[in-house]
Design a protein that fits this description.
By secondary structure, this protein is an alpha/beta fold. It has 8 helices and 6 strands; from the N terminus they run αααββαβαβαβαβα. The strands form 2 sheets. The protein has a 4-stranded parallel sheet with strand order 4-3-5-6. Helix 7 links the parallel strand 5 and strand 6. The longest helix has 17 residues. It is globular and about 60 Å long. The structure holds zinc ion. Zinc ion binds next to helix 4.
Amino acid sequence: MERAISEFSKLPGIGRKSAQRVVFYLLKSSKFEVQQLAEALISLKENVKFCTTCYNITEVDPCHICTNEKRDRSTICIVEEANDVLALERTSQYKGLYHVLGGALSPLEGIGPDDLRIKELMRRLSDSVSEMIIATNPNAEGEATAVYLEKLIKPMSIKISRIARGIPVGGDLEYADEITLARAIEGRVAL
Ligand code: ZN
């Protein structure tokens, strides 16, 4: 039981207390249910891979987004992780392609440009790509990554934009931190 708790506490967002709750839940579940979970996890590792074009997670390579004829091939949206693709896809607003970097620049953690899929991104920049949207996270690492990419791409004749950031819907101006507020002012839209 200790081993199971310690394995679950390694998962993101799961502390020791949550891990204990999960383990107790599994102890009460039937053997069949636990087996289903274990099989789903193993099959996840065996069948899900990275798309060799955009590095999104996929069961087929290239992924469904890269092979979809209806997607706009002239635009690439750059994100940090595959779950950012899921989040953007849920909005149904974006019709272009993606490129998943696999993280963000972080000198503190020793993550440099070579640790991200930046070389792979540069290889995709053919004549057919006319716009790049940088959608890294609005934190120090995401900002550093965006600045680095801007410098790299700017000399090419490709339009670069960044997703607008600002006050979340339902948010309150008075509780927004200064970076968020500064970004909101910067990304203001004409009425
Ligand atoms: Zn892909």
